[in-house]
Amino acid sequence: MSNDVLMRSGARPQWLWAIPVLCGAAVVAGIALTTAVPVPDGTYLVLDAVVGMTYPAVGVLILSRWPRHPIGRLFCLSGAGLALQALSGGYAAYAQSYGLPGALLAAWVTNWVFFTGFGPLLLLPLLLPDGRLPSPRWRPVLVAAVAAMAVLQVMLMLRDRVWVWGHEVPSSFGFVPTDPVAEVAFGVVVTGLALSGVAALATRVTRSDNRRRLLPVFAAVVAVGLSVVADNLLPPDPPVGVWLQAAALPLFPAATAVSIFRYRLFEIEVLIRRTVVYALVTVVLLGAYLVTVATIGTLLRTGSGVLEPLAATAVVAVAFAPARDAAQRAVGRLLFGNRGDPAAALSLLGQRLESSADPTRLLDRAAETVAHTLRLPAVAVLAADGTPVCAEGGVPGDGVRLPLVVGGRVEGELRAAPRSPGEALSAADLAVLDDLARQLAVALAAVRLAREVQTSRERLVIAREEERRRLRRDLHDGLGPGLAAIGVRLDVIEATAPDTSPAMRSSLSEVRQLVQGLVGDVRRIVHDLRPPALDELGLAGALEDLALDTEEAVEAGPAVTVRVPEPLPELPAAVEVAAYRIAQEALANALRHARARTIEIVARIERDGLVLRVRDDGRGLPEPLVEGVGSGSMRERAAELGGVLRRTSASGAGTTVEAVLPL
Can you tell me the mean pLDDT for 534-546? Predict the structure, then answer.
């Protein structure tokens, strides 16, 4: 049984949602207890709040779909560890001030329980997104990381001093010197974990077929890694490193949520995502609200009055109301896209259509644009015969089907899947889709017409060149030899006729000259119809003949080599002529402008197409580049056959002209 099946299997207990609730309650209780008494330094409480409020929510979101997924479990464990530190630290500070029992035990727990969450947090990038290592070569790294975490966990439990919100006292439970043993070990381990996580995820991103879904997470992991390294390198006062971590750590669950929502990283159903996102935003804002109230209340409480905390609470409440509304709007845009702003949706689609330089590829990213505009899991544009023109997330089997009609002709169909199974799209969604369908219908008609024109053009060019080859063969093998035979026959008549009068000899001479002139005309026509070397030597031989003629014609010129790695099959006449003329023009351009020492011509078959490459080691293309008549004719010859021509150059490194001609 595969790992995916194992992670899918199992019940989906509803009590999973108790994890973020309990973690949030622990954070709130810790903040309340801490703010009730004066503490020297409460900055680490901010880390506990942001991690304890956000990480369990994302973890349960993943576990709701994959009950045994290690990534979901690590997210929950990360948040739980720091939430417990907030609770134990708050109780330790409160109990020490009021003489309650268990103060020293709570302080001792505060010093090591956080790493039961912070360690797994730094371990997450090694296993993202599927809960497995990037490759078996990373197994020693994982083993070393887990061993180092276990050793550090024991050292934190047995160190000789305990620290609670800036207040440090000797520990009756430990003997490991805090300075420098425990502090140095902590810095080395967390830095190693952070850097190895960044390296592992970077390896996975470079090898992934769908990098976009991992890029937000990778950016967040880099930010977290840099903040961890900065915290270990910067001096503790002022606590810049702690504030950097407080800013970077929430990016990790946020980026994971973005990848889930936009790129379906863990295939979470859209309905679950929508419900959880609103709850997650509410929890995050509540946590930020409480942290800010606690911080401002602590800063303003200079005496025993009550007015300062109440004033701070009022200020924060007023400040967060518009922030909450903005966050809710952002979540709505994340889940439903621009359905409330049809003009923006049309503008985005118009920009994508305008960005296409090839009329036949006008709709390449249209389905992706529509899907991302309305946050739909699957969108497809089909031609009139049912062939997919473009698709994002596959061709939907159910959902909305809108005909694409232009001038009474059905050009195709737009299909859009619902956001979740069984959920119908709203009237606002349908209105935006209807507006987009009109633009897509016109674009689809333009694509059809462009393809028809291109197909007709290709057929005309192929038919023209095939007819020219036939005419050349008939002229060369039929009419030419016949005229030559007539000339020979005239010579025989003149030589053997016994009584040939001067007038008759003059007439025969005129006829002979006429026949010779016709023979010359036929030869010129044969040569102009098609390069003779193509029929006599084939394309490979014709290119070698072209290279030899060039070297003989130009004194002290560049060395021209022709390389054909494998024998070329029989090519269509149009492809042979286009390849020969493009090579001829590229060679002429290199001789006139490149000042090259060597020129190489390569011809090979790749993916049902002929690839012709002319490379020189000259001075490269000028800047700015102005395309001349010769370059335009090369591009036109390739386009006539549905091919492409590319010219690349680097200053002082030569120029490469590459033509790809479909067969």
Answer: 85
How is residue 624 written in tokens? Answer: 């700015």
Sequence-separated (6 or more) residues with CB below 8 Å from residue 157: 108, 111, 112, 173, 174
More confident residue, 565 or 307: 565
Residue 158: is it exposed, middle or buried by C-beta count within 10 angstroms (0-12/13-18/19+)?
middle
Residue 268 or residue 441, greater confidence: 441
Contact 60, 286 (CB under 8 A): no
Q: What is the pLDDT of residue 573?
A: 83
Phi, psi of 598 (to 5 degrees): -135, 145
Nearest alpha carbon to residue 298 among 44, 39, 91: 39
537-662 sits in which CATH class? alpha beta
Q: How far, in Å, CA of 159 to CA of 150, rounded?
A: 14
Average pLDDT in the chain: 78
Sign of the alpha-carbon dihedral angle for 469, 471, 472, 474: positive
At the top level of CATH, which class does the domain 342-459 belong to?
alpha beta
Check pLDDT > 60 for residue 19.
Answer: yes
* Phi, psi for residue 107 in degrees, rounded to 5: -65, -40
First-last CA distance in the chain: 46
* Cis? peptide before 418, omega within 30° of 0: no
- Phi and psi at 490, nearest 5°, equal -65, -40
- DSSP letter for each residue of 430-489: HHHHHHHHHHHHHHHHHHHHHHHHHHHHHHHHHHHHHHHHHHHHHIIIIIHHHHHHHHHH
Split at pLDDT 50, 70, 90, the class of 5 is very low
Phi-psi group of 599: left, alpha or beta (phi > 0 → left; psi -120 to 50 → alpha; rest → beta): beta
CATH number for the segment(s) 3-268: 1.20.1070
The predicted structure's pLDDT at residue 444: 85
Of 230 and 528, more confident: 230
